[in-house]
Write a structure and sequence with these properties.
This protein is mostly beta strands and 822 residues long. The protein has 10 helices and 55 strands.
């Protein structure tokens, strides 16, 4: 598998590939033909790997001994082609002659290319069957099936000649000779039509004498003995195969979904709700979210093209138990469903807030984890949501549920702070709502019932997928959790795993590097140029620039604790201001002396920005409050207060300063609607208030007069969050939901606010979850923005937005790596 391509100091190019212990089949054949039982064992594993790839819609197109590794864990087929085949012209005399001495090109290696490939026709599964036949011939005989010293002689052999009989290798079974010759038929229609047929014949060969008769009568006694020996060898090979085939080798396919596919950014808010790619329960279909408009596409794995589900804009898709429906979340936090064949989008319910992960049980119930509420159960036909597990004392969220087989218990992740480090995996019985913790420090749990009756709990901790045997009847784990994969993408805020597993044993996931989800802090200008501010990758949030532009306040998460720090770039020092582990949303008072922030409980607190003294309560309420902006004179603070789920109302509160600190007066409600409204930001003259609202179904930026006189103006035209006023010009900045900065010039005419069409301010894509964590702030001079940036950008994270990895035979891999009872 190719991990990276690069150039070192302009001297030479390099490729980084997966390291495997073992040898290639080519190297093994150089030592001589393989023993018959060993050749049959390897051939069965190769055929099975290709069969599973074909059923997943992948044609290899370059099957050859150099692309087959013999390892301790079995045979591994390497260098799979792209999932979407493309037509390629036939090779020329020049290219083929060159390849005869240097094998391996993008077209394939001539000795293993099917006749139709020389005619420029598109390769399909039957082309792989031809190549497999040539490889099997070579394993048994030690010779290539087709040879030639030039293009003409090689091409002539492939197009019109048959390979020499395999009987040049004594005791070759006749059924094997027939199998290979059928694979090597010139017309694709005369070959096996699927690799599954080849697998079946290899696993259950006919009981017959395998010797090919010499022409001389004097050899009859030797022939009889040879026939008996060959029959014994075939029987031995058959028994050996029957004993070893239950555990099939892991097949890993790195699949490009196509240049027109752009999976959601791994740092985008919407990936936090669930995986952006999912595989159906029966393992036959894929669904994924693509593009900044969050369109849903589905693709049968036996077909080469995906189909858009019209009208199904949303995210976090998941399949019903029978694989016939897809559930998904919309930007308005509604649960919808649509048939896998398309058709009308069917509204299901409003869970009461954004939900994270969906599990669709066989009895027609859908389970989701709703932020601020707990676990919610919804009937697939609609109806009122039922909270089956409310938040307990000290709990922030219960997310990523999975109903266990039989529908008697549910797995989920429990959080005390919105961080994977502060999470645990719990299970709850639905009859009595009894809960117990079964693992700490994990997120996105999945229960897998493997084919031999063993069950496993798998979960994510950062980028590593762990597995541990799990008894679904006793609801207990056994043994020790062991790492299975170390490159699974997950969201740094909640540990949302970008993976999905079918009940047939196929896992699909998105890859991630070590710094996945981590962020850096940088200055960004309108030309798209960045200047590092905090280059060390970390889990940062809520950047806030001081009024003089010299310091930066932000929230830093370490070990599950989130606290407020102040960074001084001139001295390159960080000063910690809070120590409760649950603080966020820092904003500066206009004089720069104080920082107001969200506290671990309800309400807000204030502290000295220089670190002197201890934080003091500022406003107190039973609901969470999120401070956002002061009026220029510092006498009014704007904040939003959560009233249900994650929905908020806009509030203001008068502020007084007595030299020893800040004191708050009585809060006043500015706006109260059924929509989610947040981020109140005052204009430089204090006359206008910009804010974010999803009243239209999508978050947009609006402006109202302050105090409110009823007028309202929409500023954004696609989506918007975090309004920021320029102090030096008539411009209003904001961020789109796909992490880009926009700017809208404006004028004021009497009591009307007139905004021009928003324009892109910078082409850079910001990092962080737009709706979960504030990731941007405007400098006082209005010329630069401080922004959170993806730490993985330099490692090709953007290139990975149309790639997924398929792992076939994943259940067999679990049984090998995590034996039950160990």
């Amino acid at each position: 598998m190719l991990h990276d391509i690069g150039n070192h100091d302009g001297v030479g190019s390099f490729m980084v590939m997966e390291f495997m212990e073992g040898e290639t089949l080519s190297a093994r054949i150089e030592k001589g033909a393989l023993p018959l039982d060993q050749a049959l064992k390897f051939a069965t594993q190769i055929a099975d790997a290709l069969d599973r790839a074909h059923r997943a819609g992948v044609t290899h197109r370059d099957v050859k001994p150099q692309n087959i590794m013999l390892t301790r864990d079995g045979v591994k087929v390497l260098d799979f082609g792209l999932a979407k085949s493309s037509s390629k012209p036939g090779p020329t005399e020049e290219t083929l002659t060159k390849v005869l001495t240097t094998e391996g090109t993008m077209m394939g290696t001539p000795q293993y290319m099917a006749p139709e490939q020389f005619e420029g026709k598109e390769a399909d599964a039957r082309s792989d069957i031809w190549a497999f036949g040539a490889v099997l011939y070579e394993m048994v005989t030690g010779q290539k099936a087709f040879q030639g010293k030039s293009y003409s002689s090689l091409l002539g052999a492939i197009l019109s000649a048959d390979p020499p009989p395999m009987s040049v290798k004594p005791f070759t079974p006749a059924w094997l000779e027939r199998l290979v010759r059928r694979c090597l038929q010139k017309d694709p229609d005369d070959r096996y039509q699927s690799m599954r047929d080849v697998v079946i014949e290899l696993q259950a060969p006919p009981q017959e004498s395998a010797a090919v008769r010499p022409s001389k009568a004097a050899l009859w006694p030797w022939m009889a003995a040879a026939g008996a020996l060959a029959l014994a060898l075939a029987a031995l090979a058959f028994v050996h195969l029957r004993e070893t085939t239950p555990e099939r080798p892991l097949v890993r396919l790195d699949v490009d979904l196509g240049a027109d596919v752009s999976l959601l950014s791994l740092t985008n808010i919407l990936t936090r709700a669930g995986s952006s790619v999912a595989i159906s329960s029966d393992g036959t279909r894929l669904v994924y979210v693509s593009g900044t408009s969050y369109k849903l596409f589905t693709r049968r794995l036996d077909q080469s093209k995906a189909t858009e589900l019209p009208g199904a804009g949303g995210y976090a898709p998941f399949f019903s138990a029978d694989s016939q429906w897809i559930g998904f979340e919309t930007s308005g936090f509604k649960l919808n469903k649509i048939s896998v064949e398309g058709g009308a989008v069917v509204p299901v319910a409003d869970p009461g807030g954004p939900f994270y992960g969906g599990s669709w049980s066989e009895d027609g119930n859908i389970y989701v984890g709703v932020t601020g509420k707990g676990l919610v159960r919804i009937r697939e036909g609609g109806g009122a949501p039922e909270t089956i597990a409310p938040l307990g004392d000290g709990e922030a969220d219960l997310l990523f549920p999975q109903i266990l087989p039989g529908g008697k218990a549910v797995l989920f992740s429990a959080y005390t702070v919105r961080s994977p480090d502060a999470s645990s995996i719990e299970v709850m019985t639905l009859a009595d709502h009894h809960r117990k913790t079964i693992s700490r420090g994990g997120t996105s749990p999945r229960y897998l019932a493997t084919s031999n009756g063993a069950g496993y709990l798998v979960y994510i901790n950062k980028a590593t997928l762990f597995a541990i045997p799990f008894d679904p009847d006793k609801l207990e784990t056994r043994g020790t959790a062991l790492p299975i994969l170390d490159d699974v993408a997950s969201n740094s805020g909640l540990g949302t795993a970008q993976l999905s597993i079918s009940r047939t044993g196929t896992l699909v996931y998105r890859r991630s590097g070590e710094d996945a989800g981590l962020l850096t802090v940088a200055w960004l200008d309108g030309a798209g140029k960045t200047q590092p501010l905090l280059a060390k990758p970390g889990v940062y949030g809520y950047p806030s620039v001081s009024p003089d532009g010299q310091r930066l306040a932000l929230a830093v998460t370490e070990g599950g604790n989130q606290d407020i720090w102040v960074y001084d770039p001139q001295r390159d020092t960080m000063t910690r201001l809070t120590f409760d582990g649950r603080s966020g949303f820092p904003i500066w008072s206009p004089d720069g002396r104080y920082i107001v922030f969200q506290t671990s409980g309800a309400g807000t607190s204030v502290t000295r920005s220089d670190g002197a003294g201890k934080p003091q309560p500022l406003t107190q309420t039973k609901n969470p409050q999120y401070p956002y902006f002061f009026t220029p004179d510092g006498k009014t603070l704007g904040f939003n207060e959560r009233h249900s789920g994650i929905s908020s109302d806009l509030w203001t509160v008068p502020i007084e300063s007595d030299g020893a600190g800040l004191r708050a007066g009585k809060p006043q409600l500015f706006r109260q609607t059924s929509a989610d409204e947040r981020n109140p930001s005052f204009s430089p003259d204090g006359r206008w208030l910009a804010y974010t609202s999803n009243e239209s179904g999508t978050f947009q930026i609006y402006v109202r007069e302050f105090p409110d006189k009823g007028g309202k103006w929409q500023i954004s035209n696609s989506s918007g969050a975090y309004p920021m006023w320029s102090r030096t010009g008539k411009e209003l900045f904001f961020e789109t939901l796909d992490n880009h900065i926009m700017a809208a010039a404006y004028t004021v005419k009497g009591d009307s606010f007139v905004a021009e069409k928003p324009r892109p301010w910078s082409g850079q894509t910001l990092g962080g979850d737009v709706n979960l964590v504030k990731n941007v702030d405007l400098a006082p001079d209005g010329k630069r923005i401080v922004a959170l940036m993806p730490a993985t950008e330099a490692k090709g994270a953007q290139e990975a937005q149309n790639h997924v990895v398929f792992l076939l035979n994943f259940f067999d891999e679990l049984r090998r790596k995590v034996p039950v009872g160990k």
